[in-house]
Amino acid sequence: MKAVVQDRYGDTDRLRFDDVPEPACESDEVVVRVRAAGLNARDWHVMTGLPYFARVAGWGHGFGPIRPRNPVRGTEVAGVVEAIGSAVRTLRPGQEVFGWCNAAFAEYVAAAESNFVAKPQRLTFEEAAVVPLAGCNALQVLRDQAGVRPGQSVLINGASGGVGTFAVQIAKAMGATVTGVCHTDNIAMVQSLGADHVIDYTKTNFTDASSQYDVIYDIAVKQPLTACRRALQPNGTYVSIGDSGGRWLGGFGRTLLTPVVSLFGSRRLRAYVSLETHDDLVALSEMIEAGHLTPEIDRIYTLIEVPDALAYLAAGHARAKVVVTV
């Protein structure tokens, strides 16, 4: 089969479109014929091996000490079940599914049955493929870390990005009053997702405004923690999902600093790294079928164009999600 592979950490010039063996199916696994694969910052980090700390701490996300654990890149996937292992009980060949794996930029993938759920009928394969990582991240932060309740004020910094577009819709579905922070060019899109208010970061720094929020979900991570804390209501909650940082610690630096700053005052500051789960995929699918959540896609590339797609994502100009069709 065809896949996008790499043998060493590096930039997109390390990627090549090549033939690799089709994946074998273990007893608890399914083989899925890939129809589409979503792109995420995680794919870029694993490709480059940055930050260096992730080569030690990011084993579960595909990092290895000197090269990626798996030569095939890609994490989010949607497709059709091709084969099932002897212990598989909930999925059947021919079923349309979406989920996550460690080698999505390929014609076929194999992963545990629990990594997949039935694809919502109202979504295309491309739309379904961009849900698992970004959707789980937004859901877990807003529901579990911040505990968003109806009537609360929620600010989402980075509202037009891959995670942010999910976060706006999920926060609205939870009954919150949502303020999105984005670039001027993306204001209309963020409003269309349901945001009650939109701040143009090219004109206004949300930490300098007089407003305070019950929850700040910081995806863009550009402002100092102390400034973000001032924008919280007393007993409010701030959650970040890391930043690009330096080559050594990257977002782990923010993760280590956040609990220290949180010690001073009543406001809760947290840094979070999401972990995809089967139950959360089911919850996202139910929200999609109910019409509360619709994935937004910026650009669609083909499998052979994965290096171009990752370069576009890394440039920081993408809004919503970028997807590869297979």
Descriptive notes:
Strands 3, 4, 5, 6, 7, 14 and 15 form a seven-stranded mixed sheet that branches. The chain has a six-stranded parallel sheet with strand order 10-9-8-11-12-13, sandwiched between helices. The chain contains ten helices and 15 strands. By secondary structure, it is an alpha/beta fold. Helix 5 (162-173) links the parallel strand 8 (153-157) and strand 9. Helix 4 (132-145) crosses helix 5. It has helices at 41-48, 54-57, 125-129, 132-145, 162-173, 187-192, 225-230, 252-262, 278-289, 306-314, and strands at residues 2-5, 16-19, 29-38, 76-84, 96-100, 108-112, 116-118, 153-157, 177-182, 197-200, 213-218, 232-240, 268-271, 297-302, 321-325. The chain starts with a strand and ends with a strand. It is globular.
Q: What are the defining features of this structure?
A:
10 helices, single chain, alpha/beta, seven-stranded mixed sheet, 27% helix, globular, six-stranded parallel sheet, 326 residues, 26% strand, 15 strands
The low-pLDDT segments are none
Shape: globular
Number of strands: 15
Q: Could you give the distance between the termini?
A: 12 Å
Helix count, per DSSP? Answer: 10
Helical/strand content category: alpha/beta
Q: Helix content range of the residues, please?
A: 25-40%
Main beta-sheet strand count, sense and barrel state: 7 strands, mixed
Q: What's the pLDDT, averaged over the residues?
A: 91
Quaternary assembly: single chain
Order of helices and strands: EEEHHEEEEHHEHEHEEHEHEHEHE
Query: How much β-strand is present in the residues?
Result: 25-35%
Determine Rg (CA atoms, Å). 19 Å
